[in-house]
Every structure is written in C-alpha cells, then in structure tokens.
Known about the structure:
Chain A is an alpha+beta fold. Chain A has helices at 29-42, 47-67, 114-122, and strands spanning 2-4, 16-23, 73-80, 84-91, 125-131, 135-143. The longest helix of chain B has 15 residues, at 60-74. Chain B has helices at 30-42, 60-74, 87-95, 108-113, and strands spanning 3-9, 17-25, 47-58, 79-83, 103-105.
Amino acid sequence: MISPHGKGAAKHDVMETIELRLPCRAEWVGVARLAVAGIANRLNFSVEDIDDLKLAVAEACTNCIQHAGDSDEVRIACAVHGDKLVVTVEDHGKGFDGRAVAPRALGEPDVGGLGVFLIRTLMDDVSFEVDPRRGTKLTMTKHLRK
Amino acid sequence: MDITVDVREVPGKDGARIVDLNGEIDVYTSPRVKETITDLIDQGHYDLIINLENVRYIDSTGLGVLIGGLKRVREHNGTVNLVCTNPQIKKIFDITGLVKIFGIYDSEPSASAAL
C-alpha cells in the first residue's frame, strides 16, 4: 500500500509511506526483508546499507514472532524521506521491551539480545515504544549516504 | 529463501564432520541447521566444520544456533570452525565480536588443518 504525500513537501518531510502487513510467522520474514531491500534499492542506498536494512528489519520481525505472543500480524511501514528511510515494525502482542536489553560485551558467547544489538549497530537511529495493551513499535532510521 | 544442509566426513580427521550450508539462515530455516548440528553432537561428533561459503544471509537466530553448537562441543573439548568468504557474513561476525570465539577460515582445508 503506497500513501503519497503532497508535491510541496520539504526535503525532510515524508514523501511516501509504503506499508506491508504480514502474518506474524517465521516463513514471512524473508518476504519482509526482500520488500524493504527493494524499497532501499529504489532509493539508491548502497549494497552494504541495503544488507544492513535487510538484517535490521528481519531482526525486528523475528522479535515480533518470538515475543508478540497473541499478535497475528506484523505491520511494516517504510517512510521515504529525501535523505533517509524510516522503517517502523509493530505488532499487537504483549510487547517486547528492547530498551531493557543490556549492551553485550563483544565476543561474549551468548545469544540473548543479539538481534537488538544488531539492530542498534546497523541502523543510525533506533527507538522502542512498548505498550502492554497495544504491543511494540520499533522505529529505525537509515540515512542515505552521499 | 531456503536452506539445504549436507554432512560429510573430514578427510584424514577421524570423527570430524563438515556441515555444508547453502541458502539463507533465518528464523524460518535455522531450526533445520540446529537439528543437524544437534544430531551430530548427539552421535559423538565434537569437531565440526560449518561451511558458510554458500550462505547468502545469516541473522541472530542462525548465529544463535552456531553459538549453541560451539557451547555443546566445548563441553567435550571439541571445536567448531567456520568457512566464510562472504564479506557481509564476515561483517556480522565482526560487529558481534563472534570472530573472537569461532575459528573463521577462508577455505575448507585451512579450517580442517586447524581442527
């Protein structure tokens, strides 16, 4: 679903928002990352940045699948700005508080929090909104490098 | 968006096994990789080479499977060596610091020699 905004939008305003709603199941994560890769490619992100976006979005979807419990859907929205792509991934489950994941020591042979660590490392800005009644919303920004 | 998993013997290394992975390792496909590695360890194969040369993508669930396998073989003084030439996959091991706990090699013979 594409929602175009006004022609007179300033450079930093949202130009378009592309939304994807997927079943909250593991077999759909690949579709989410390929869709976001296609959008980033259209915006002329580098191959390396597209790989970063793919992984970050997949990790966010994986969190939804593993922690959202009773959520039946993952909503992914890509807001296209002139100089950045803002991706939100949200579910309507009981919520996963990525803010509570402590930074891990490099080289530590542990699995816990690896997904959130990767998201924070690969994206330029990351924020979590957790509401036990409405679910979790993860907002990630990747700037377009000149 | 799938994975194939094959197991071979390591020439000249009694009991060691090579796991060839081909495809993408994510939350959907990683259970298949985990099952293979778990079966090998249950059968007493504690020296493993995981060949990632034909893996195009890996996420935290895939890393978790590899870390879980490494923890289990270490209990038996075993090791897990990785063969990895894809720069994007190498980058994931770099930024997570996992290069410090896995032996990562550019070729199967060098991974085998290090067992």
